[in-house]
Amino acid sequence: MNLLLYYFFILNAIGFLLTTYDKHLAKARKHRIPERTLLGFVFLGGTIGSGLAMLIFRHKTSKTSYLWRFWGIVIIQCLIAFLWFYSSK
Hints:
By secondary structure, the chain is mainly α. 80% of the residues lie in helices and 0% in strands.
């Protein structure tokens, strides 16, 4: 269980840092981190870190296509967690 906790902590930290860095790149008008990479970290479990960076730095909050994919991943993760929790009872 500790390994899983470390996994999610590291992924969320990376997701937070990547989203923050992408915001920095956007302000500097430099080559950006692909959305596929950002959403990949969300998909793998970095949802909280990426979401916090989005809220704190107001990054990707007005891009509807990104938000649809982000929230779609969140819903899928919630369904998986719900099914996993109730299937173990």
